[in-house]
Amino acid sequence: MSSRLPHPIPYQGSKRALAPLIGAHVPRGIDVWFEPFAGSAAMTLWAIHNRVARRYVIADVLEPIARLWQAIIDNPDATAERYRLVWVGQHDGDGDYFNRVRARYNASHDPVDLLYLICRCVKNAVRFNASGQFTQSVDRRRLGMQPDRMATAIAAAALLLKGLTEVRSGDWLATTSIRRISARRWDATSAIRANSSRTRSLQGWKACSYGARDLHSRMTA
Ligand SMILES: C[S@@+](CC[C@H](N)C(=O)[O-])C[C@H]1O[C@@H](n2cnc3c(N)ncnc32)[C@H](O)[C@@H]1O
Fold first, then answer.
1. Most informative mutation of 15, 16, 37, 61 for ligand 1 (most atoms within 8 A of CB)
2. Helix, strand or coil for residue 58?
3. Which of 73, 75, 161, 214 has its CA 20 to 30 A from that of 9?
């Protein structure tokens, strides 16, 4: 089942394929689920799909990854459209395009530029130097995830995460604090509304096509 879950950030080392095996050892009825080394957040997407917890925290020390997840949750359509614009900028014969996006990312740390770099770099294996500059090279054998496929994956991931998930950035020791949770307002009502309308545009992604009633029962169970 996990292979059908959305996976908008194709990180090397993603637990996507292993999620069902790991999940077999996960207890149910968890109050707050933490994924402090989130990357692609594969385990959280699996956990929400399998309703193992009431609330979820995804966190990463790489701040642009955290901002990317926040953008996916808050503005899935705009994030997908921005990815499309970066992706279509690559043309045959322009062998330097990836390097220009990489230079732009290293100057501005734009999360959507990072998404493109992850999708297009060698083995989806991010590499950074000691100054935090992205250093991995382009994979010339493929173009990276197609924009339509990315848009579907982003929409489906947002549908799962919205209203249930808080995104944090920082070292895992700081981001796994339970005390910060109790002060936070989890806006379940607007999440239901948002997900209800989005569900209609997700035909074809059956594994993730939750309706409002289903979401509500997951949040109140
Ligand atoms: C191999 S990736 C995670 C893969 C993830 N399990 C998945 O399914 O995609 C490791 C992640 O941990 C993050 N990381 C490394 N050191 C960290 C730390 N001290 N605290 C929080 N995150 C950290 C990295 O930025 C990276 O995104």
1. 37
2. strand
3. 214
CA-nearest residue, atom 8 of ligand 1:
14
> Can you tell me the distance from the alpha carbon of 102 to that of 106, in angstroms, rounded to the nearest whole number?
6
Per-residue tokens: 199 = 């569900």
Is 71 in a helix, a strand, or coil? helix
Calculate what percentage of the chain has a pLDDT beyond 70: 79
Whether ligand 1 lies within 6 angstroms of the CB of 64 is answered as no
Is the distance from the beta carbon of residue 63 to the nearest atom of ligand 1 less than 6 Å? Answer: no
Cα 23 from Cα 137, distance rounded (Å): 34
Q: What's this model's pTM, rounded to 2 decimal places? A: 0.84
- Quote the pLDDT of residue 11: 92
Reported as a pLDDT band with limits 50, 70 and 90, residue 180 is low
Task: Count Cβ atoms below 10 Å from residue 91 Cβ, excluding itself.
Answer: 8
Domains and their CATH numbers in the chain: 2-67+165-220 (no CATH), 77-147 (1.10.1020.10)
Residue 116 has pLDDT above 60, yes or no: yes
Q: Is 176 in the pocket of ligand 1 (CB under 6 A)?
A: no
Report how far apart, in Å, the C-alpha atoms of 63 and of each of 37, 39, 171 are.
Answer: 12, 11, 10
Using a 10 angstrom Cβ sphere, with 0-12 exposed, 13-18 middle and 19 or more buried, the burial of residue 71 is: buried
Determine if ligand 1 sits within 6 Å of the CB of residue 10. no
Instruction: Say which amino acid occupies 116.
Output: Y
Ligand 1 centroid to residue 38 C-alpha, Å:
5
Q: Tokens 């029962």 belong to which residue?
A: 217
